[in-house]
Amino acid sequence: MNSCVLFFTLLLAYCVFAIPKSSHEINLIADVIQSSDKLTSVVAHVCWKPSKQIQMMYLLGNKNRPMTVRFVNKDWASIVEPHHRERVLIVVDVNCPTTHRQFFEKANATKKFSFPYRWIVIGKAVNESNAVTSDFNDLPLLPDSDVVIAQKNDSDSYILSMIYKVHVSKKWRVEQFGIWTSVNGLKKFEAVRSSISTRRRNFRRHSIKTAMVILDNRTISNPYDLSDILTDTVTKSSFRQTDPIYGYLNASRELIYSPTWGYYRNGSYGGMIAEMTIGDADLAGTVLIATQDRMEVVDYLSCPSPISIKFVFREPPLSYQNNLFLLPFKTTVWYCIGAFVLVLAFILYINALWENKKLESSEQNSKDPTALKPHVGEIAILVISAISQQGSFTELKGTLGRIVMFILFLAFLLLYSSYSASIVALLQSSSNQIRTLSDLLNSKLELGVEDTPYNRYFFPIATEPVRKAIYQTKIAPKGTKPNFMSLEDGVKKLQKEPFAFNMNKGIGYRLVERYFHEHEKCGLQEIAYLYATKTYITCRKNSPFKEIFKIGLFRIQEHGLSDRENRLIYARKPACQARGGSFGSVNMVDFHPVLLMYLYGIILAFFLLFVEILAHRKLHPRSTVGHVITL
Predict the structure, then answer these.
(1) DSSP secondary-structure letter at 326?
(2) What is the DSSP letter of 473?
(3) What is the CATH code of the structural domain delimited by 312-317+431-533?
(4) Residue 149's beta-bridge partner residues?
(5) What CATH code would you report for 2-199?
(6) Residue 33: in which H helix or E strand, if any?
(7) In a 3-state reduction of DSSP, which class is residue 573?
């Protein structure tokens, strides 16, 4: 084992020191890599001698940033790519036999000429080739390609160029990368020091096919028109925000119209997404909601509009969430009042018992019907009459008894006044207890949804229990028509009824400002239903224009053009400036607990009457045929 290690060490030393000076191609490759200032993993397809290959490995491995070097044949499948594809740099020598054409075809089939792969091609000498592009005919080197071609100019210098096409049908464009000499090394031209995506933005009027979602055909004639701002608002906003990019790219525009954004059904996408996946569209002209499945077929570029889709509702009256007649006092106060009633009832009973014994000897007062008897029923009736601020024909006759009666009625007078005042205030109060989807599901609010393609798709496919229950019980119960409605109808219903409406807030709030009174704008609450509502401008997956589009769109945002359009088209949540500006009438929901108590009381009264009749007939069976009732 040691002898083998020694042998390969001596062989490596011989190969390195036997060639005291590195070849020009190796030094050129090293200088180009160093100029990029990136971590690099070299994959080389060359027909060099082993000594030259070892020399290349030795030189690149001893740089400030050591690099890995792998030599491959024409079969690209034998390469195990690193996890970071942006580090891969492919070196090809076209002066080798015809194998380089097969290698190019393999690389093209696996999209190795696109971003983020980098190439250095040792081309033919200048005097041996008619054009720098002669070895790349029929290869799609598009704007995202990074291919440096080195052509030998003389024995000690190389001319370096970069080539690409805006489209496979267009002519080649050549960028002068620099000059390399054995004396001065690489002299990189100033024009190529900026990024590829920045310097290749001149499309020279090449047509960019853009897909748009059109819900109303009137928008096609003039997508700039904002006179009917509620029609195709999202498309008009996106169209105006992406419009400057065509000037930035010096490109023309070809529009492709679609009736929907595109959703995954039956194994494929439709709508605008289909235009970018199986159609010819390069760019989406309408923003798209970001979902995990869509990330596999399109690339997201920028988020120009703060579109948010949520349930919006006015804070409902407090009676929709609570029993108003229990809210005036806290639970501890109710317990104290109950204890107070029991204590007073006990005192009344003792006092009545004492007076009854005291007055038994008096014939004048022994049959007084207004004297309070020490019976539980009479005591209860007296206490109930005091609580409800009603009088009682029975009373305590003594001085002590009158004091107890005064305390009883005074205490409940104060409690009654406080209770009544609280009820009046609570009738005009709103509830802030609806904060989550669960609260919304369990509330008495009616729910509605803006009638748009994305809502009709995302609501029925909800699988999370609460969201699914909201759709099945409040939006589309079985046997009823799903509660989808136009934006205007939904906002008007939101104004007049206890109603929650799922809508695009930026557009919906514009109607809120139009129809709502100032006091009605207060108490507007929001709850998100959709998991993801952030929208992006998208392009075809792995588009060669992706980075160029992205830079252009971000520049539009940085210059404030997107913000201008957002302020012009979308409205923000209205500010509350006149809370409590009007008083609403009391409705059935507010006092239905009292009606229920009244109904239960009537039922209980008839039940007790029936029991009394049965008890009377059992205790006093009829012994004579006729009875005389004297009143």
Answers:
(1) G
(2) I
(3) 3.40.190.10
(4) 121, 161
(5) 3.40.50.2300
(6) helix 24-36
(7) coil
